[in-house]
């Protein structure tokens, strides 16, 4: 029996127990929080595929932290605030930047092998950073972190990690207390799960999640006194993305259906340089490659970034991505070139062994050949509105890492600040969750999930078509450059698609595919709704009909469902609720 199967088998014997803490997701946020809590509490981590299927595992560049003598906290703060275009929370920026060196040293103590130069860390440089401050493990920093943390997690007796467990919806207090209804109502209620109920003012408490075993498709309630969403990003909402398949925005969708407030969803970061190659699914060419001197050229060899921004190729990502998009559209070219051929080959191979090796497999030599690249959806700057310690608008529900919106990134994330945010968030969330555990009673018993849909899932070809439609609408109409007309069209298309997907959700036997499809359709709709609301251009949100920033819009867009069940009203507000 494989190690993976053994973990699943051993887990299945203990399925019904209630836990102190349920963590959904096994990226840097979830794993780090589990390690911080495990000496005080019993922690269950559930993750929807393999333990290392996460955005974390794919991170190449590294973690931003001030270690260089030429650098200072003030510089790192300033760079973060500049990228964030007026929407960062200054207190959060200050706290994260100042804690960064300590959190990085802790990671190293846990076994992550960062590169060193002389006495200190070898520091890379990336777009938007005015100094060298990217701590890295060659160009596979994320894999080094994921591997080290997983080793520690597996070794800890108070942590259990179960793979192939897909959280479908959150368990809410109001649903536990709601009076039982007649068959029709109860069916709707159980399937609607967290989406409706007798929630008051969005303050429903969370007691765990309904979770599907990917092998059997059976759904069970898993209760806990504290539930943490560490489910990462939503790149799969877009047709082209650097994210792995697990990034379907499940945490955002579950939290929204439960009534939590979500913020800044219009700010989706597109990475400027994803490899454009017929045989490579998604492969990122790290920003650090431009940090080491790579330049961008159109297909006729013309360098175009110096005329766009004083930092040229090292301008913030949104500016580089928009410039590439403009050149491609203007010339009708399918990609642009990334050229590192003028940098000494030995230096390139030493700094980027992973990227160079992958490209060689595809017949491209990073040290000599121009590399074909296009922008692709990369990072969600918005998320579940949360404090730095993960507190959300629902008692008992916490959110950390990419799924959360703490105010660090504002309207645009500074490169390599996201692994850092997850690290610092996990550190603070551990304190916050411990306070909850000291006061909260045992989780109440949750009713079993009652499957209502009995019809077999749709043919793969139909389901694939819906996946493709949602993702194409988002790519074509809600991408790097938006307009009022494109957004309105996207909104109408997504409404039709969502209605059909909701009908399937009610009638068909649930499958992981349908659960995820429903989530990308919802998250796509929320991104569109947030983008339509922001009638200006700022940071990552660029609208041709409102091309400039407007001072009155210097606040976050908040979206929250207050209606009952699906299709409930979206409520937009400004900032600060927590
Ligand atoms: C190619 C690439 C390169 C990057 N490079 C960098 C970089 O150099 N520096 C940097 O700071 N950031 C980088 N990022 C961003 C960074 O990797 C992520 O923001 C960060 O890893 C997020 O960590 P997380 O713990 O929040 O989520 P993730 O690491 O994405 O983990 C989410 C976890 O939740 C699980 N999950 C999701 N939904 C469910 C569900 N319904 N039920 C159960 N489990 C679920 C997933 O399977 C996964 O285990 C990069 C991202 C990518 C894709």
Structure description:
This protein has 578 residues and is an alpha+beta fold. Helix content is 37%, strand content 16%. It is built from 17 helices and 21 strands. Helix 2 (28-37) packs parallel to helix 6 (141-155), helix 15 packs antiparallel against helix 16 (484-507) and helix 15 runs parallel beside helix 17 (512-533). The longest helix has 24 residues, at 484-507. Mean pLDDT is 89; it is low at 1-16 and 179-201. Flavin-adenine dinucleotide (FAD) is lined by residues 24-30, 46-49, 53-56, 58-63, 141-142, 166-167, 230-233, 242-243, 246, 250, 284, 379, 401-403, 416-419, 422. The site of flavin-adenine dinucleotide (FAD) has 43 residues, from helix 2, helix 3, helix 6, strand 9 and helix 14.
Tell me the layout of helices and strands:
Blueprint: H1 3-12, E1 19-24, H2 28-37, E2 43-46, H3 55-58, E3 63-64, H4 73-84, H5 90-109, E4 116-117, E5 120-121, E6 123-124, E7 134-135, H6 141-155, E8 159-162, E9 165-172, H7 173-177, H8 183-192, E10 206-213, E11 219-229, H9 250-257, E12 262-263, E13 268-275, H10 287-291, E14 295-297, H11 317-331, E15 336-339, H12 345-351, H13 353-361, E16 371-380, E17 383-385, E18 397-399, E19 404-405, H14 418-439, H15 460-477, H16 484-507, H17 512-533, E20 558-561, E21 570-573
Parallel strand pairs: 1-2, 1-11, 2-8, 11-18, 17-19
Antiparallel strand pairs: 3-7, 4-5, 6-7, 9-10, 10-11, 12-17, 12-20, 13-16, 14-15, 15-16, 20-21
Bound molecules: flavin-adenine dinucleotide.
Flavin-adenine dinucleotide binds at residues 24-30, 46-49, 53-56, 58-63, 141-142, 166-167, 230-233, 242-243, 246, 250, 284, 379, 401-403, 416-419, 422.
